Amino acid sequence: MFASYLIGLREGLEATLVVSVLIAFLVKSERRDKLPHVWTGVGAAVALSVGFGALLTFTAARLDFTGQELFEAITSLLAVVFVTWMIFWMRRAARALSKDLRGRLSEALELGSAAVVVMAFLAVAREGLETALLFFASVQGAVATAEPLIGICLGLLTAVLIGWGIYRSAVRINLTRFFTWTGVLLILVAAGILKYAVHDFQEAGVLPGLNTLAFDLSAVVPPESWYGTLLAGLLNLTPQPSVAEMVAWAAYLVPVLLLFLRPRRPKPAAAPASSAA
């Protein structure tokens, strides 16, 4: 449930900030007549994301055991790739995001109402599709399907409330720090998803070593205990992982965390223009 809440909070806040920038720009530009077009694009993006999530669930449910394991493994790998790209992209582009959105919206306003709808749709659809894919991958193997759904709904609701508070200037939040901490947590979630993908490939017979265990902590960390459930739900760490699962988990987690937490090098100052005679 916490992993799903984190996904909803992180992805939802990104989408909410995008919508807030678009709305604020239209209000300050006295183009309130275009607000319905923005909401039309946002609604279409939300509908597409929900439909994409439903399609993933429907497809997985119609496959046989081997096909289902392969499908879940491939979607998990895609989720890891997308969340890793998204974390580093947001870390690099967060400062210029608002300016870029305002520039694209200005161009869309010159082209007409349909362009505004498409621009708002594309700005939100990426976040929505990532959320659906990441949520689908993170809840594979979950015993209780209601808790992840409740978690992501609560995360999205929290994101909307925070975004509304920021828009109304009622809430002040250090977005750089927020995206850094949630980025670290999402890297942990992504490492667990990758570990689960390896397990699915082993279940499908694509990878060997399903019964070659790295360790057995079932006596110390019972799977039915609250802390065992927490480790499995958040980090996908199980008491009896295979060697291949743990190798994949560590091979992803360590270098990605180090790269993400590495201090950013300040951009070199521009050399002053020479005063030629």
From TrEMBL:
Localization of this protein: Membrane
Transmembrane segments: 6-26, 38-58, 70-90, 111-129, 149-167, 179-198, 243-261
InterPro entries according to UniProt: FTR1/Fip1/EfeU
Keywords associated with the record: Membrane, Transmembrane, Transmembrane helix
Keyword Zinc-finger: no
Membrane topology: Multi-pass membrane protein
UniProt family annotation: Belongs to the oxidase-dependent Fe transporter (OFeT) (TC 9.A.10.1) family.
NCBIfam families attached to this UniProt entry: EfeU
PANTHER family named in the record: IRON TRANSPORTER FTH1, PLASMA MEMBRANE IRON PERMEASE
Name this polypeptide is given: FTR1 family protein
Organism of this sequence: Nonomuraea antimicrobica
